[in-house]
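The protein record quoted in full:

***
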Amino acid sequence: MHRRVPEICLKHGLNQAVAFRFLDDVEKSVRFIRQATYAERENEALARIQSRDPDDWPVVATALALDLPIWTEDRDFFGCGVATWITNTVEIYLAT
């Protein structure tokens, strides 16, 4: 899961040890979804995201399978037919 952390840290000048500790803490609060949960929605998800970034299909498929929005700053998801939330909107929602 953390295979891209060194690359991202280098690109943004972040401390890798701090990033790994942060991700370890996040993993304590995040529920991981098994591929079987979203695999049946692969074709539909690919059709929705194909023109932007087909590698993102598992996120779209999971959102479709669980009927949930996507929290992202990645514009590739905008217009895929799944509700998307950006961070400042999530912050406003959580503050109420």
Remarks:
- The beta strands are 70-71, 84-85.
- Helices lie at 5-12, 16-27, 35-38, 42-49, 57-66, 87-95.
- The CA atoms of residues 7 and 82 lie 29 Å apart.
- The chain has two domains: 1-30, 36-95.
